[in-house]
Amino acid sequence: MGHKHTVDLSTENRSLGGLSGQLIGFGAVLAVIGLVGTLLMGNLEGAFDHHADDHHAAGHAAGHAGGHAGDDHAGGHHEVHGYNSTWSIWHPYLVAATWLLAICLGAIFFVLIHHATMAAWSTVVRRIAEAVSRNFILLALLFVPLVLPSQMDKLYKWIHPDPGDSIIAVKAAYLDYDFFLIRMAVYFLIWIGLSWWYHKNSVQQDHDGDLKRTSRMAHFSPMGLILFALTITFAAYDMLMSLDAHWFSTIFGIYLFGGSVLSFHAFLALVVIWLQANGRLTRAVSDEHMQDIGKMMFAFTVFWAYIAFSQYMLYWYANIPEETAWFLRRQENFIWGSWGWLLIIGRFFVPFLFIMSKHIKRNRATLALAAIWMLIMQWADMYYLVMPQIDGGEKFPFTLLDVTIPVGFLGLFLIGLALSLRGHSLIAEKDPRMPESLAFENA
Amino acid sequence: MSDSNHTESEFETITAEGSENPQPVLILAEFETADELMSAAEKVRDEGFKRWDCHTPYPVHGLDGAMGIRPTILPWLVLGGGMTGFVGGLVMQGWMNGVDYKFLISGKPFFSIPASIPVAFELTILLSAFGAFGGMLALNGLPKMFNPLFRSDRFRRATADRFFISIEARDRRFDAPANARFLRDIGANAIEVIEE
Lengths: 443, 196
Fold this sequence. Notes:
The complex is a heterodimer of chains A (443) and B (196). Chain A is an all-alpha fold and 443 residues long.
């Protein structure tokens, strides 16, 4: 449509410039707060006390020191320990790591799906998605300590199953530590490979303007999406579902996927709003683009609820003990029952009604509010997947470590983002769909 | 009017056959391009016309703003439809399964939220869609079997390659000769007045 005034990019501030120092500084402050807080609170919680004896007690959750963990464990003796773990610092660590992993997974999905569909509206923000997805490197580093044998013992009880645990015995071929490590390596290699390849091609196109890069990226994207779908599914099984090795849900990977795409769009909205508040991309990214990002946040709020309910209802209806056990731990006591309602209300109804209107999506302040809320809810969701495994869900394991660790990781995440955004344009300069993206309007 | 280059003869009058006392019902102006239509629409809007419309072969982005169209209430109709479906679905199942005709099925509660969500969800979607579809038709005054615009042969190109503005005679500012001059000034390349 010729009537649309064209955005003149030459006068647009589209490099991170001095903001990279600001972002790295902010990230560093968060990281330091997170680290110091974690050390302080960890000491108070006795998280670092029982390194020595814990290893031997692995698989038998009861009977070791550590104020928070060992106090009231009389009931735990009689249970099968395929799923029951005692609190350790690695529980909040896993929650925080999967929380940020979800954002990265959403980012690489964003890049892939927009190449696969040759989407134009999103071209102005695709570079930010590419930069966010490069944080897979950081997450790989964060996951290394998690998969060391001593930490695995504390989280994943299948590693040393109780004698006679026939349910885990039949899964032994899959739930094998070496095989687990290989899978984790494969996931991260694929994710890092995809994010680096797409980022590299996109950045190099800024310089050479080679259109073949666009078609090459589009050609590979369906294969990338298949790899993505397989890896996110099995990663969800390995990292989160196998915390309860007795339980299984085939929809679990899609559950993580729904939350991932939602969190990424929320994060993207915040990054763009922050950039614009600092005079970057003020005209390249218009209300129209913000509205579309908001639409995706809305859509995946619904998608997440749809998947979460689908998983719940089938198990509720069939009412088979080995399937309902996971939900019983999350429903049959006040703490986790309330947390479940927190997700239903806070993760679905509140954002669903709040960002339904286009005025909310087009207003930076209200969109930012929704985005922050959704990111907190993503954390609450990961918390709900991990923490009720502690002591059979009988007590509330919240400590200040649940705050300090995510804050510290977020700091590292922002530093990683600054390093990826720095030195390149904030938009894909010579992408052939850029003019169409700049002129985008919602019908 | 002598100082004007345009005279009243510069618009064509189309009169309905067999009309006893023909009165103009609308004036139709043709434009060559979407851009011309856009800028003309802005001027028609600024001139204070209320009962007028644009006709284009395809959706023209930004035309709503150029015409000064007020936001539609359609989203509220859809929301109302959706809420009715959701609440109605739950109430219907509560009444049927929990009160009116209790029937024990595999030990499940007579009424429970999880079992009722699928039907409530589907009714939410259904009534939202009805709200959107029926509401759109109603707000646009559709279905409408005939419009005086159809008397114009020229207007047929609105579905192909021409852009039109029509101003209804019900508009307070309607005045065929003056409007024709105004439309000519803002870029129309042909003007017709339709009488019935």
